[in-house]
Amino acid sequence: MYEGLDATTFNNMFIEQLDTVDGIRKTAAGGAAFTRAKIRELGFGRRVLPPQSVTRADLQRSTDHDTLIKIVDIEHDSKAMAINFAAEADERYIQGKRAAFPFFKIESEKFVKSEGELLAYDYPITKVIEENSVKDIQKVEDVKFIEYAEAAISITGKRLVSTATAVDRREMNSLFKMIDYDQLLADVCLMNIVDYDDYMIQPATEIGSPLASEITVDGYKYQTILKRKLVVTNKHDILLPGEVWAFAEPAYLGHFFILNDVKFWIKKEADLVIWKTWEYIAEGFSNIKSVAKIELDVANPIPVGGTI
Amino acid sequence: MVVAISDIRVVPIGEDLTKEDLSLSILRGTEKMFRVDKPIAAGAQFLKGEWAVLNVDGKAERPSATPVGHTYLVFCGTDRFDSYATGQVTLIMSHPVVAKSSRYDTTQTYAVGDYLTVNDLGAGQAFVTKAGPTDPKLARVLEVGNGYLTWETLGGV
Asked: Which residue of A has its CA nearest to B5?
């Protein structure tokens, strides 16, 4: 839509479009499309637990307040037994369990800028929207994702404190076994990029000469580690270096619901351009046994004078 | 009266929902047992697997310190929407029924064949406990499990 234009020309056209009702609608639509694509790409929680789009008809209301939840069933247990011909098996009066996923809003700050100052920017205004609104929303999603993961392991105890100073195959093996033992399968490994860096300096005696040689030249270029999908993040303020997580595949893990997709709003009031972005989501782990964490005794990755 | 969705089943989840619910499982007799609704005495609340006593008005109230024969196993507690709507609790009023439950007096030591009775155990508990020689016998232990008892209900005589 905006290809072939330099940033200044684009910004000027953007402001002119906002002077008409139709222009506002079209500009908002363009911004919305751009925003959605980037959020899906950047949120690490979404890579572990892919979002499912829901509508109002899929949700339940509270009788006490004007908020929404989605109630999700938990698979109930069942078993069989070996018995004599003349006997009969035990009975089971089925009583299901359910979990409620409460929706909440994540909203960017309301950005305000005068049209004159917008023209002073040397990059397209959509980049501003991306770098502010999208980043803030995806960060809150991931904050809640880790918060709920911590809540899960606080109940199950699937938190292993290791004396290892860097992540390697043994530590990851211990991590995965915490999930695999419960007749689940660890599917995703989530780690900070600092730990990923450490993983790549394992000696040839540990990981084999061909792989060590390959990593030395190209880095670790595979999407899996020990057959588990690898998700790496640089958000050290959410995922501390030394904390490596494992999750089962989404069907055995939980849900991430988005109500009616991300919303983008923009208007021009006199010479001020105002815009914000928001979404309504519900995310969490209904099978808390599908989450595990290992905490390594990592050295401070920040050079002298800094702290984690 | 608690009728809202349990807080621990709202994200972030406060319990392992895949864990088997041992509060009450009827292993034998489901098809034939009498599932009878009784009005709830003022202020009384019951959970599945607890026991209720019928008072002089025929209403379900919590057991007192003295065990009585007209004490019945709660099949569906007052924490449900339907109980809230009807003002009644569903009791099992026939025997024998074979049941497994984690709701029992854990301060006692049990063996297969022990008779069980029900009284107010304090702290609001109304579970089965080991019966004294003169107590009404409400159940007999069939299995002492890890965290649960399996028993067959008796007539409370």
From this structure: A100
Cβ–Cβ below 8 Å for B16 and A156: yes
Is B111 touching A (CB cutoff 8 A)? no
* Concatenated DSSP letters of A182-222: TT--EEEEEEEHHHHHHHTT--HHHH-HHHHHHHHHH----
Of A92, A97, A282, Cβ closest to residue B11: A282
Does the residue B50 lie in any domain?
yes
Task: Report the amino acid identity of residue B138.
Answer: L
Per the confidence metrics, is the pTM higher than 0.90? no
Domain span including residue A36? 7-75+98-295
Is A99 within 8 Å of B10 when comparing Cβ atoms?
yes
CATH code: domain of residue A188: 3.90.1690
- Specify if B137 maps to a domain: yes
Tell whether B150 is within 8 A of chain A (Cβ): no
Q: Identity (one letter) of the amino acid at B130?
A: K
Pick from A74, A93, A288: CB nearest B26: A93
Give chain A's domain count: 1
- Residue pLDDT, tens place only, A105-144: 999 888 888 888 888 777 666 566 656 677 788 889 999 9
Angle formed by the axes of helices A21-42 and A135-156, nearest 10°: 40
CB distance A284–B13 less than 8 Å? Answer: yes
Within-domain flag for B2? no
Kindly list the averaged pLDDT for each block of 10 residues, start to end, along chain B of length 157: 60 88 93 94 94 96 92 93 94 92 94 94 82 94 96 87
Establish if B141 belongs to a structural domain.
yes
Report the complex ipTM. Answer: 0.81
